[in-house]
């Protein structure tokens, strides 16, 4: 919300000389977030000039310029820049006449965009200044001609300060308005907050208006009825609907300069006098208004839900197909406006409109929010309605619009209109004695509590052991005693709240699962990887490619209203997001990447239905049964961890060649993670539709106390063809593990292994086996046969070539034996090695290599 300071000062006392920073500081002190400041970026002498004469001079480039004589100061007096009172100025516009009052920027002035004005030679003349257009002054987009002050209804003295005349010396502060404080989307609301912060006197603009009739006679048969036969969650779409009629409006009257400049500072473009008035009142009071061309209405007005298949051409000239939940304003011809969002084209205020019907209504916030999002049509009105508008201000807003149209556009209120009010008062809140002091930790006096609540507009009634607090109509966010505590804390001052770190109750903190997830993240980060967070929404093709280790496609949950139509599914794997991150970084020159992500995936059970649960209203506490139904309506969401490595693990440097990442690095990262979680794992040859068939491993962990294992993920390299299709290097190593399963299997406590007290005996064994036999299976067989003396075993060589038959391979393993109670003899170690080789021979026909 942008707030012009001069406008703010109309409703609250802002001391002369108050800076933008001081206004911001005051608003921040009561909980509003500073966003920035806005001004017209004009400096130097800018004055009112009078065109005395001009001559038109055609140029060789086909353009015609005017060499003008312009008076910029009273006769005989020096101009604002100290120069002559009459200047020669070159102007390319042709829309002005002799005698016109115009805006002249004299040498030394600086216009928006850091455009400095100086006397300069152009088109054969020395132009001693410039006659400005509205766009050059920052007042609007009009640039076809210079700004004639008569079009603004102004006839100032020559030489007068044009900046002050046009309101260009004003500035605006901007604050962020949170969804719960819709009342601050108005000058009225911000003025009240400034008064809270500074103690300055506040003058409510809604109380200073001639309200006129509350519910008069229908205007020329224009009746208003509320026909909401399909309320959402029991809430009627419109609870207030006020109309007023103004006739004899002159639509050609220019909007006053002060209004144009205030609208511009507030971020709204000036359009026409009627539209500008409705926007001005909306900013001033926070009540969105809409003006209808009364002569274009056909019959009475009905507020209703849209009919199936109904269409509406909105003010932006777009034809829209309406939803049956949309609330519309209709007449006998059909829908003429999307309630609270945008008006219809058929009743638009035009240059021919002389009779205006003003509408000030209060619509259901949820209905308006859904309509604006459904049609991708956010507007200044919808932003206010979806946050909640004061239902009591509609009559005042309509009266204010009538007042301005009478004063500025020659209109005449004919006393007709209508008024519909069925808005319930906000429920009172019981506030126990001492509750706020105990909650906030500050010893507030009873006077501080009551005065703060009265200051925000609440009504107080003493009750047994406390107060009964009735919130003001503009504060629908006050629904609980804790919200009242927040109001007292900010009105008295946040500085009263001590900065004390609370002591956590015993037994609190991270759960075991949270601790292990954090340990997993810290382990990978410490190994040199970078954590990233990717979007959980993917395409069907991505889920099909990466979502299943084999050639099946895992089902996926489809979003009813996806942010991106090309990514409508929830992810079943983390790899698509990691690949998108890698591609983005590669495109920006980062060629060596080690990335990981820890996040939830969504893995529906086949033939199950999801997303069918009824979402309870936010205003009521859901029951246990409701929560159970909601849980049953969502798919399992296990946590996964995924890694991606590409480029070089070690850069090229003097004396050492570059070392590229490969599948071995991904496997090392997986083993490191398993070690940190104390989960024993093994790997075996695996397959995946997206991975290289010879460089893919399935990751297994034991379950129970037997020899059963379960797969928890895979490690491998992307298929080179797939990597090329994705614009990635040929070698991209990836891994993905079910982190929830690992955490479930993680040891509850880590048992430290005692240091060995006796020396180890090391031996190697080389066995020839069929090439189709996995080295890991041979390793397991040797370990099983070698017995308890075997301390460690690992593969050191896989040879295929001369001396080995075709279809065979030679595997060499390094074995280390150790006893805990004695020094092993060479014979004992050899016996265990031979037993291991024999077991491999029984299982796979392995024979010792000669």
Automatic annotation (TrEMBL):
SMART domains hit by this protein: B3_4 (SM00873), B5 (SM00874), FDX-ACB (SM00896)
Boundaries of every FDX-ACB domain copy: 756-849
Locations listed in the record: Cytoplasm
Ranges of residues in domain B5: 424-499
InterPro entries: aa-tRNA-synth_II/BPL/LPL, B3/B4_tRNA-bd, DNA-bd_dom_put_sf, Fdx_antiC-bd, Fdx_antiC-bd_sf, NA-bd_OB-fold, Phe-tRNA-ligase_IIc_bsu, Phe-tRNA-ligase_IIc_bsu_bact
Pfam families tied to this protein: B3_4, B5, FDX-ACB, tRNA_synthFbeta
Cofactor info, note text: Binds 2 magnesium ions per tetramer.
Leading EC class: ligase
Cofactor needs: Mg(2+)
UniProt keywords, alphabetically: Aminoacyl-tRNA synthetase, ATP-binding, Cytoplasm, Ligase, Magnesium, Metal-binding, Nucleotide-binding, Protein biosynthesis, RNA-binding, tRNA-binding
Start and end residues of each TRNA-binding domain: 40-163
Primary location class: cytoplasm
PROSITE patterns named in the record: B5, FDX_ACB, TRBD
Signal sequence, renumbered to the chain: none
Protein EC: 6.1.1.20
Assembly behavior: Tetramer of two alpha and two beta subunits.
Protein's name in the database: Phenylalanine--tRNA ligase beta subunit
Organism: Subtercola boreus
Lineage: Bacteria, Bacillati, Actinomycetota, Actinomycetes, Micrococcales
């Amino acid at each position: 919300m942008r707030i012009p300071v001069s406008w703010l000062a109309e409703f609250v006392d802002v001391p002369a000389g108050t800076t933008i920073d001081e206004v911001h500081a005051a608003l921040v002190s009561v909980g509003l977030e500073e966003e920035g400041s806005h001004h017209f970026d004009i400096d130097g002498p800018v004055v009112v000039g009078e065109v005395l004469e001009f001559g038109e001079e055609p140029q060789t480039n086909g353009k015609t310029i005017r060499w003008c004589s312009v008076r910029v100061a009273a006769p005989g007096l020096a101009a604002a820049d100290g120069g002559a009172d009459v200047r020669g100025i070159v102007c390319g516009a042709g829309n002005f006449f002799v005698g016109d009052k115009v805006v002249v920027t004299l040498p030394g002035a600086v216009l928006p965009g850091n455009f400095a004005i100086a006397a300069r030679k152009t088109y054969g003349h020395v132009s001693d200044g410039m006659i400005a257009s509205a766009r050059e002054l920052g007042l609007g987009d009009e640039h076809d001609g210079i700004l004639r002050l008569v079009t603004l209804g102004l006839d100032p003295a020559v030489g007068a300060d044009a900046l002050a005349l046009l309101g260009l010396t004003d500035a605006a502060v901007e604050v962020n308005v949170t969804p719960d404080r819709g009342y601050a989307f108005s000058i009225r609301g911000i003025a009240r907050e400034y008064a809270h912060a500074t103690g300055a006197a506040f003058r409510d603009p809604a109380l200073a208006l001639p309200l006129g009739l509350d519910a008069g006679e229908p205007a020329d048969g224009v009746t208003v009825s509320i026909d909401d036969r399909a309320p959402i969650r029991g809430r009627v779409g419109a609870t207030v609907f006020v109309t007023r009629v103004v006739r004899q409006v002159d639509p050609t009257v220019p909007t006053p300069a002060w209004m144009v400049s205030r609208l511009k500072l507030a971020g709204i473009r000036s359009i026409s006098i009627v539209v500008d008035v409705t926007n001005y009142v909306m900013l001033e009071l926070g009540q969105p208004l809409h003006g209808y061309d009364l002569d274009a209405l056909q019959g009475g007005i009905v507020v209703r839900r849209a009919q199936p298949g109904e269409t509406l051409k909105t003010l932006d000239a777009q034809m829209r197909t309406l939803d049956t939940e949309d609330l519309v304003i209709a007449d006998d011809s059909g829908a003429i406006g999307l309630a609270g969002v945008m008006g219809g084209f058929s009743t638009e205020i035009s240059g021919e409109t002389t009779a205006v019907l003003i509408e000030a209504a209060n619509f259901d916030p949820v209905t308006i929010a859904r309509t604006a999002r459904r049609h991708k049509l956010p507007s200044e009105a919808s932003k206010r309605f979806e946050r909640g508008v004061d239902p009591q201000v509609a009559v005042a807003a309509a009266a204010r619009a009538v007042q301005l149209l009478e004063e500025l556009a020659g209109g005449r209120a004919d006393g007709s209109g209508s008024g519909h009010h069925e808005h319930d008062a906000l429920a009172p809140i019981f506030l126990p004695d001492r509750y706020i002091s105990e909650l906030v930790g500050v010893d507030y006096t009873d006077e501080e509590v009551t005065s703060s609540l009265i200051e925000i507009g609440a009504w107080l009634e003493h009750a047994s052991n406390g107060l009964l607090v009735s919130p003001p109509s503009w504060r629908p966010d006050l629904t609980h005693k804790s919200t009242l505590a927040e109001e007292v804390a900010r009105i008295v001052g946040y500085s009263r709240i001590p900065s004390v770190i609370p002591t956590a109750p015993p037994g609190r903190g991270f759960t075991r699962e949270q601790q292990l997830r954090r340990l997993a993240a810290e382990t990978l980060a410490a190994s040199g990887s970078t954590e990233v967070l990717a979007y959980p929404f993917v395409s069907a093709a991505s889920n099909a490619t990466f979502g299943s280790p084999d050639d099946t496609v895992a089902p996926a949950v489809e979003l009813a209203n996806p942010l991106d139509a090309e990514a409508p599914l929830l992810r079943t794997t983390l790899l698509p997001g990691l690949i998108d991150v890698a591609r983005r970084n590669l495109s920006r020159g980062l060629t060596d990447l080690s990335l990981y992500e820890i996040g939830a995936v969504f893995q529906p059970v086949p033939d199950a239905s999801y997303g069918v649960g009824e979402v309870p209203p936010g205003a009521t506490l859901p029951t246990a049964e409701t929560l159970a139904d909601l849980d049953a309506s969502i798919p399992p969401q296990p946590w996964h961890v995924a890694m991606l490595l590409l480029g070089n693990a070690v850069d090229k440097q003097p004396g050492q060649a570059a070392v590229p990442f490969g599948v071995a690095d991904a496997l090392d990262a997986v083993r490191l993670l398993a070690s940190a979680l104390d989960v024993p794992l093994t790997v075996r040859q695996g397959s995946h539709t997206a991975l290289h068939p010879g460089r893919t491993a399935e990751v297994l962990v034991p379950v129970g106390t037997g020899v059963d294992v379960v797969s928890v993920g895979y490690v491998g390299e992307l298929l080179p063809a797939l990597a090329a299709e994705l614009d990635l290097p040929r070698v991209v190593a990836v891994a993905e593990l079910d982190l929830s399963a690992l955490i479930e299997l993680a040891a509850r406590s880590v048992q430290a292994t005692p240091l060995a007290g006796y020396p180890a005996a090391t031996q190697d064994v080389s066995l020839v086996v069929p090439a189709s036999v996995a080295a890991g299976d041979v390793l397991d067989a040797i370990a099983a046969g070698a017995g308890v003396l075997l301390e460690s075993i690992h593969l050191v060589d896989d040879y295929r070539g001369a001396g080995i038959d075709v279809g065979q391979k030679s595997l060499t393993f390094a074995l280390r034996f150790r006893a805990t109670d004695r020094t092993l003899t060479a014979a004992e170690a050899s016996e265990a090695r031979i037993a291991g080789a024999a077991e491999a021979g029984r299982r796979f026909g392995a024979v010792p290599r000669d």
